[in-house]
Amino acid sequence: MPAAIAAYETVDEQAAAGPAAQAAFRLGRISWRQGRYEASLSEFERARMRALQLHDRELCARSENGIGAVYYARGEYKQARSWYSQALTRTTDDAMRARIHLNLGVIANIEGDLEEARRNYLESRRVFGEVHDVEGEALALHNVGMLHADLAQWAEANVAYQRCLELFEKLGNTAMVANVLVNRSELLVARGDLMPAIESCDRALTVYEQLGDEVGRGEALRWKGHALRRAGNGDLAERLLTESVRIAHRTHARLLEAESARELGSLRGERGDVPEARRWYIRALSLFFELGAKREEVEVRDELGRLERDSES
Fold this sequence. Notes:
By secondary structure, this protein is mainly alpha-helical. It is 87% helix and 0% strand. The protein has helices at 2-14, 17-33, 37-54, 57-73, 77-90, 94-110, 114-130, 134-150, 154-171, 174-190, 194-211, 214-231, 234-251, 254-270, 274-291, 294-312. It is globular.
């Protein structure tokens, strides 16, 4: 990875406008994967400006989609949706359209509009299928699995996860294999398969560490902490969840920070530490409110209310 970065930086400094714009875009993608969002945003914006000067609509659309991805990773969903929508109106590439529908579906899912999410995911999968983009279709299938999980439709989620895991393993896409392993751990915990869930997160952690993906590592730590809490290992769960919060705060991954804080609130509440549980719940509630994650906001308010009632009884 360092060699690739150095090569792209050399191209960006020395090449003509077209190759330099492409190099800036690739640098933006590398920084995004590493969770270096400020650097990523700068590179995507530079690529977009050069693409506009060159009248390169597709590179401009890809850069706008990249900008949207940075805002999404930082939990700034209004800005992310705006950039995604702009890219959607600009591109004429079907595979790109499918990816943007996938991204818009993710935001709708977070904001609790599950029907809008479903429409975007299915449109994405349809278009990917039409252009024979197997990797894209696997991405859409992965998100369909997450939607089923949000609805506690575990059998349907399992089918979707298993199928897309097979596809990503066949394609050699290790980053997405790790993402599926992490998300599938939620399903395993729901079925009571706690050790397989922990092992799934450990496999993902190995991949994220190899890739230098800090946000991915934080997600895997959160879900491993969740499984460990359910298994009764509160001490190790707390250490992992606290590290997840630190990673999320450092990388500005606000959704991850909110989810990890909520998990810590649950853990502390189970241990009878009401002040600490309240502190973590309030932190999570504030972040979910800022993000517009309405479903999670309502759920945390209910959990906080139960905590307060139980402490008074």
